[in-house]
Design a protein that fits this description.
The protein has three helices and 29 strands. By secondary structure, the protein is mostly beta strands.
C-alpha cells in the first residue's frame, strides 16, 4: 500500500482554547444529564462543542459538530483516500480537501486473520457515494465488520446528503447487469471486498491496486468461511473481453476497463466468455427515498424519530462515532467520543449511543465505526487539522473514509 503523508495533528482536551474561543470555559447543564460547553463557531453554519455525561462506570466525554445544512456556504461530502481499497488517517483526508471538520466513517475490512495469506483490502462495508459518484456497493450482511446488526438493519443502510442540502437515513441497493453473447446476468457487486455466493462483481479504476482475492472468501452468512476455488476473472476493455484468468488478480485497473470477478455459478458464467466478445456492464446505486445522494456513507441506524431502534446491544462498551439528523434534515450532528486514558472515561453501548444522540438533539442517528477508529478532526486557526479527541490506539488509525464538512465563509 502506498506511503501516507504525515498530517499535522494536535490533540486537545476539554477546556482548551479553540478557534479563538474557549470550549468548556462556559459550561451549561442541558437538563437531561449532559454538561455541555458553549459552542464555538468554526465557520458559517458550523459550530464545535464538547460534552460530558457521568455514568456509574465512568465519565462519557465527547465532541460534537453541529452543521446547519440550510446555510448557503455549507456542504457535506465523503472523504476517501483516492481508492476504495485504501486507508488514510482522518486528519489527512480532511487536510487534502480543506474540510472544516470531519469524523471517521464506515466500518471496513480491517484484517484477514481468518484467511491466512489473503490481503486485507481496507475497503468499507456499505455503499459509498462521493461528490455524486457511486464508488461501491454493500457487501453481504454476513460479511460485514462491526457490532451485530440490530433487527431490520442491513449493509445497505446509509447516511445520505442530497443535492437539496438535506440529510437523511436511507438505503442504497446495487442495480446492475452484465450483458454478453449468451444473455444478461445480474451484477451482484461493485468494488466490494466480498461478493455474494454465486455472484459476479465489477471492479473499476476506483477500486485501486489491492488484490481482489478477498472477494471470493467467506459466505453470505459466515465471514470466516474459507475462500472459494470455483472462481473466474474477466477483464473487459473498450467493451470487449481482453483477458481471462482462473483466479482474482491485483494491480491497477485502467479507466474505461472493468474487471469482472465471479464465484461458483457466477464463475461458470464468466468462463463461457471468449476473448474479443462484446460485453456491456452497467451499474448504479438506487436509493429507497426520492432524490439522488450527493454523498453517502454506510453504518446502521440506532435512532429513528427520536426513539432508539429495537434490539440494540446493551452490553458491549466502546468509544463510538455517530451522525445525527434533526430539523427534517436541515441539521446534521457529527459526534465522536474521547478515549483519553487515565481520566476514568468510558465508552457507551449501542443502546446508550442512541439515547445520547437523542439527548444531543438528533431525531435520527447512524452508528459509524468506533473503537480505535473513532476520530474527530477540525481545522485550526492556522489551517492545520487538529484531532480533538484522543483515539484509543494512542494515535490515529488509518480508515476507509470520513464524513467531511465544508464552509465557504
Amino acid at each position: 500500500m502506498r506511503t501516507l503523508r504525515t498530517a499535522s495533528v494536535t490533540v486537545v482536551a476539554w477546556g482548551v482554547l479553540v478557534s479563538g474561543g474557549a470550549a468548556g470555559t462556559a459550561r451549561a447543564a442541558a437538563g437531561n444529564g449532559l454538561e455541555r460547553s458553549t459552542p464555538v463557531r468554526l465557520a458559517p453554519g458550523v459550530t464545535y462543542g464538547e460534552f460530558r455525561m457521568v455514568l456509574p462506570r465512568g465519565t462519557v466525554h465527547g465532541h460534537l459538530l453541529t452543521i446547519d445544512l440550510s446555510a448557503p456556504s455549507v456542504s457535506v461530502d465523503l472523504l476517501t483516500p483516492g481508492a476504495v481499497a485504501a486507508r488514510a488517517p482522518v486528519s489527512e483526508l480532511a487536510g487534502r480537501r480543506h474540510a472544516v471538520g470531519a469524523v471517521n466513517g464506515d466500518f471496513f475490512n480491517i484484517s484477514e486473520a481468518q484467511h491466512p495469506g489473503v490481503e486485507a483490502t481496507g475497503s468499507p462495508v456499505g455503499p459509498s457515494v462521493s461528490s455524486g459518484r457511486d464508488l461501491k456497493g454493500p457487501v453481504p450482511d454476513g460479511q460485514r465488520f462491526g457490532p451485530p446488526l440490530p433487527p431490520g438493519a442491513t449493509t445497505e443502510d446509509v447516511l445520505a446528503v442530497g443535492y437539496d442540502h438535506r440529510a437523511r437515513l436511507d438505503r442504497l441497493a446495487l442495480h446492475g447487469t452484465v450483458r454478453g453473447p449468451a444473455g444478461t446476468w445480474p451484477l451482484r457487486g461493485l468494488n466490494q471486498y466480498a461478493l455474494p455466493e454465486n455472484g459476479i462483481g465489477a471492479y473499476t479504476s476506483r477500486w485501486g491496486q489491492v488484490s481482489r482475492e478477498r472477494a471470493v472468501c467467506g459466505t453470505d452468512t459466515d465471514r470466516a468461511a474459507g475462500c472459494g476455488t470455483d472462481t473466474a476473472e474477466v477483464t473487459v476493455r473498450d467493451g470487449r473481453v481482453a483477458e481471462t484468468a482462473a483466479r482474482p488478480g491485483a494491480g491497477v485497473i485502467e479507466p474505461g476497463s472493468v474487471v469482472l470477478v465471479g464465484r461458483e455459478a457466477g464463475a461458470r458464467r464468466l468462463r463461457a466468455l471468449r476473448l474479443g466478445q462484446r460485453v456491456r456492464v452497467t451499474h448504479r446505486l438506487a436509493a429507497r427515498l426520492p432524490g439522488r445522494p450527493r454523498c453517502a456513507v454506510g453504518g446502521f441506524p440506532v435512532l429513528r424519530h427520536g426513539r432508539p431502534a429495537d434490539g440494540l446491544d446493551t452490553v458491549a462498551v466502546a468509544m463510538r462515532t455517530s451522525a445525527g439528523i434533526a430539523d427534517r434534515g436541515r441539521t446534521l450532528y457529527l459526534m465522536a467520543l474521547d478515549g483519553e486514558k487515565g481520566q476514568h472515561q468510558t465508552g457507551v453501548t449501542v443502546r446508550e449511543l442512541a439515547e445520547l444522540m437523542a439527548r444531543l438533539g438528533a431525531q435520527d442517528a447512524l452508528n459509524l465505526d468506533g473503537g480505535g477508529s473513532s476520530t474527530f478532526v477540525t481545522r485550526g486557526r492556522g489551517g492545520a487539522e487538529r484531532v480533538r479527541n484522543h483515539p484509543t490506539d494512542g494515535r490515529e488509525r488509518p480508515v476507509a473514509n470520513a464524513v467531511g464538512i465544508f464552509s465557504g465563509g
